[in-house]
Structures are given as structure tokens and as C-alpha cells.
Amino acid sequence: MAGKFITFEGPDGAGKTSVLKAIVAKLTTVYGKDLLLTREPGGTDNPIAEQIRDLVLSPAHPEMDARTEVLLFAASRRQHIVQTIKPALAAGKLVISDRYVDSSIAYQGAGRQIGVPAVTAVNQFAIDGFLPDKTIYLDVRPEIGLERIQTTRPDEVNRLDMDALAFHQRVSAQYHELAAQNPARYIIINAEQALEDVIEDTWQALVSYLNITPREVEL
Question: Where, in this chain's numbering, is ATP bound (predicted)?
Fold first, then answer.
């Protein structure tokens, strides 16, 4: 693959949406049309994966079985890889994805207590060993993340946000385990800082990794 694949991960309320908006604006000045922002579940120009997203995140389906959820996320991810991510990388683009396989391991494996080995196995079949070059992890304690959600977007709570605090604590602990297991891939950002500081720390980490020079950024 000619391009680079970077994922953004973090527990609910970590501020990924706000951070990504600012970071993508900066990266666009450097990469232009060679930058692709996508997301999971779903994906850019990917109707199959997007339809699965609508189903799995809908608050209208609280009865959804936990293993069904795992399989749906994995199915959406496979389509995302094949139809969106790999073609963009082959074209030499920088691909930024809001969530990827680590989310399933943390949320379904640990959060849903299905088991990390089982969820990892299902997703290994889906991704076939395809992992990102770097993962930006926005780290925030679960209590703070949930408080932010209730304060800033009470009308946009999805089915996963509705789970108990213990669920989100398990998710956070598993993310930290993944970071410890993959120190070369993970870049941990303190997301409990002021938003502008989180954005700056994230940007500087990417500047270093992507070898972006100051004159390339026209902001």
C-alpha cells in the first residue's frame, strides 16, 4: 500500500469529533485531495457498511444480542476495508478513520464481556491481519466522558452511550491494555485537557510521524 492508515480511538466523550474536525482541517492544507476521512461502523461512499451502522447503533433495538452486535460490526468493517480503505491507500492517500478494530475489542470484547479472544478472532477473519500504521488514542476517564455526553449532546445519545458506568470502565481498561500491547502503534493523548490543548498535542504527534514541515501547513 502506498498511503498511510491512521485510526482515532477513544472512549465515549473523549472529544474525537471535535479533535478530528480540527486535525482534518490542518491535514487538508497539506494533503488536499490525497486525504480521506472515514469512520466506523460505516464508511465514506459505502452504502452497505452505512446501513449496518444504522442498524447496530439505533436506540430502537435494545434487544440486540451481544454476539449479533459483534458480527454486524465485523461485517461492516470488512466492507469498509475492501470498498473504502484499501482502494484509497492504493491510490497513495492518507486515510484517517474514526474508529477501527480496537473499538470492537474494547466495546464488545471487554465492555459486553463476550471475551477479548472471541471478538479478536471474529475480527481477524474480517480484517485478515490488516492493521493501521498508527492509532491516536484520546484518553479520558469514563466518568468524565459520560458527563460530557450528557452535558454537550443529550439529544444525540446512541445505544452504546446508554450502558452503565461499569461498561465504560471495562472499555477504558481494555483500551489501555491494547495500548500496552501495541506501544509502537499507539500514540496516547491526554483528552482531559482543554480542547485546544488536546488538538495541539494530537497535531504535533502527527507532524512528527508524518514528517510535516511548517511551510507545508498554510493555516
Answer: 10-17
